[in-house]
């Protein structure tokens, strides 16, 4: 039986890490019996289901590698710090991990924290391996010390909007952060919409903590402008609340979700996830 693509990718990644370690045995974070990886994740004290699931998945795979003897006789050791989904906290975590001598800065799940870790990687020359976020800044301009492992958000937007057009949907709504990265995502959505002959009719930027009252106003706006499809830029917990309120209000918009926390959104919504893409 052929291996699943995801498993193949993980084995390629872990194999690449092993090759690096084999040729760089005196690097920081690599001892005779261990390879130390430093992670800053948006766990939010266990409240961020996406971050917790990512941490559990990585631990499961590293435990499997270690049980089989590790990499070149070295066990993978991870040190995880909680960035609470805040970029400044992620930057502080990354600097602390580098100061502690980790071999790599490994993974991060949100765009803001990932960008902050990238900044530290570029300054300290410690590679940033495996960010799970999809902002364009991780790839453009080329970042030689950053190695993402997922599609960029613009590619996900393209796939979702292609599907929308193919099924007869014509107008688009968008939830995104009120940040430079969010503005870049908005520009990509606008460009894709224009190329496909679609119209962006709702743009909902957000900053920091958002109240239920603000979400209710968003639902009202969506109800008034009636986008055929609605896409999010990450922010799984916030998006789940928006979709739940919109469904409770009886809105007929087709809600779509990018990869960031989409399975957690579906699980949290339960029956209300029916019809999501």
Description:
The longest helix has 19 residues, at 5-23. This protein starts with a helix and ends in an 8-residue tail after the last helix. 47% of the residues lie in helices and 16% in strands. By secondary structure, it is of the alpha/beta class. The model is unreliable at 1-6 and 21-26 (pLDDT under 50).
Distance between the termini: 29 Å
Order of helices and strands: HEHEHEHEEHEHEHEHEH
The helix count comes to: 9
Number of strands: 9
- Percentage of residues assigned to helices: 40-55%
Low-confidence stretches: 1-6, 21-26
Task: Give a quick account of the main beta sheet: strands, pairing sense, barrel closure.
Answer: 5 strands, parallel
Summarize this structure briefly.
By secondary structure, the chain is an alpha/beta fold. The protein contains 9 helices and 9 strands.
Topology:
Layout: H1 5-23, E1 34-41, H2 49-67, E2 75-82, H3 87-99, E3 104-106, H4 111-124, E4 128-129, E5 146-147, H5 153-166, E6 171-177, H6 180-196, E7 199-206, H7 212-225, E8 229-232, H8 236-248, E9 254-255, H9 262-269
Parallel strand pairs: 1-2, 1-3, 3-4, 4-5, 6-7, 6-8, 8-9
Helix pairs in contact: 3-4, 5-6, 7-8, 8-9
